[in-house]
Each structure stands twice: as C-alpha cells, then as structure tokens.
Amino acid sequence: MSVTVREAVFPRDAAAVSALVGAYLRQTEAEKGERGLAADTFPERYAREIDDPAAAFAGRHALIATVDGADVGLVVSSTVPEGTELSRVWTDPRARGRGVGTALLTAALSGAVRPVRLSVWDWREPAVRMYRAAGFEVVPSWDDRPGLMCLELR
Q1: Quick check: 101 and 113 in contact, CB under 8 A?
Q2: pTM higher than the cut 0.70
Q3: Given Cys at both, which of 38, 81, 87, 125 links 32, Cβ 3.0 to 4.6 Å?
Q4: What's the first-to-final CA gap in the chain, in angstroms?
Q5: What is the pLDDT of residues 14-53, one digit of tens each?
Q6: Which of 108, 5, 13, 7 is nearest to 52 (CA)?
Q7: DSSP secondary structure code for residue 94 in this structure
Q8: Would you tell me how many other CB atoms lie within 10 Å of the CB of residue 63?
Q9: Do residues 150 and 115 lie in contact, with contact meaning Cβ atoms separated by under 8 Å?
Q10: DSSP reduced 3-state for 124
Q11: For residue 142, how many C-alpha atoms fall within 13 Å in the half-sphere facing its CB?
C-alpha cells in the first residue's frame, strides 16, 4: 500500500474533489450536530463546493491522495496575506491510519509560504495530534465558533 498525492486538475478531477469535499462537509455537519453546533440547514456555500468545486476552489490548490487507485483524501491550500491557509483536510475514514493525512499535509507544506495556518475542531484529536507532530502550534483564534481550534506553523 502506498499513498500518492497529486494536484487536482479541473475538470478531470471535479468528481473526485466533489465526492471528497462532500464527505468532509457531511461528516463535519454531523459531528457539529452531535455537539449542538450545526445549523438547521446545510450551508449554501458548502453546497457550492460540492456542486462546482472548480469554481469554489478557483485560485486555490486542491491536492488529492490516492491509495491503491482510490481517491481517499483531500487538502485545499490558499495563499492569503498572512501566508498560506489549509482547509478541507480530509481522509476517508476507511483509509485512516495509513499515512494519508500525513502525506497530504507534507505535500501541502512543500513550498508553502509561512506561516501556514489552519483550523480544526477540537474533538478531532487524531488530526490535532498530526498537526502538532508537524510543528503546528495553537494560536489565538481568528474564528469565534465554539470548539474551533486555530493552529499555525511558522
């Protein structure tokens, strides 16, 4: 088993990015709902990421991780005034524990303008451990949603 990471090319990878980001968003909303943090309806901005990822992620880089020919992970990176921001970091639950998240993170950090920042729900302990192992540190939040932890790599 080996993990490969490639940059998404649209329109070729639109279906893969749509499926991965859709799984990420549905899981996130379910977890938020379990904690009383979810909205009553699926946010429209999320639907756009699923319906038209090429437009939603225009100007950003989407990386896809593949294991044994199956697309199982995603990360989106953006250049922002502060450096680089990572979002939509996701590994299909069936592929977790195989180094997919680490491979995606390593690829996203390669050549990224520092500092690199991201946010993660504090209940996603394995993800938090992965970010901390990569050198990310908790910083004051730029987002006031309860349970959201902000991290930065200098």
Answers
A1: no
A2: yes
A3: 38
A4: 32
A5: 999 999 999 999 999 999 999 998 777 778 888 999 999 9
A6: 13
A7: G
A8: 23
A9: no
A10: coil
A11: 11
